[in-house]
């Protein structure tokens, strides 16, 4: 399927998680605006959920990017925690979400929104949508809560964490037959060939991140192999950047340009 079909039919926009790599979604949104492509629903996980939520309440790409640039400094949105189950306290992030979304609930959007999270007790996927009487900011705090990094988030007595644990690219949650999916942790997010000394010279964090990317990539490919949707899949070349490099937002944003 090509993008001409997306201009003719209603379609779902799916934005994957990926930390700072998710800023590449903005490049795709920029091109969508110039092509006159407007989704009929948005499905997002983690960083893709944050950008998707902004889009769903009427923000254009330039407005979303301006918001991201305003908090790329780590000190503006990270507060380290020395107790509990995570190294980052969510207070500053929660304050940013309150500024962006106020008291809007999942039903209070211009474009229907679905946010993917994981119930950390049952291990099952939980998708928040307009059917849920839940604040957007709460669903986002759940969807981005990487275990061990960000604090888990409790909603209506249940404890939730990052949606990538179940489905990083939310293809299976789309309502429409035609889908535009952007996967920043896709085929081009890791090196296919490694230098001989890779396992001796790279640090544990780099090894861990590459392993997680491979895990998520294979998870998404399995889901894609079972879908009957008509999918335009965009996979930006994110392999040269890390999921925590928010300060490189300008370069990462350009990775999503020119792919439609």
TrEMBL record:
InterPro entries attached to this UniProt entry: Acyl_Trfase/lysoPLipase (IPR016035), NTE (IPR050301), PNPLA_dom (IPR002641)
Motif range (GXSXG): 44-48
Domain PNPLA: 13-175
Keywords, ordered alphabetically: Hydrolase, Lipid degradation, Lipid metabolism
Motif window: GXGXXG: 17-22
Family matches, as PROSITE patterns: PNPLA
Active site: 46 (nucleophile), 162 (proton acceptor)
Name of the protein this chain belongs to: Patatin-like phospholipase family protein
Organism taxonomic ancestry: Bacteria, Pseudomonadati, Campylobacterota, Epsilonproteobacteria, Campylobacterales
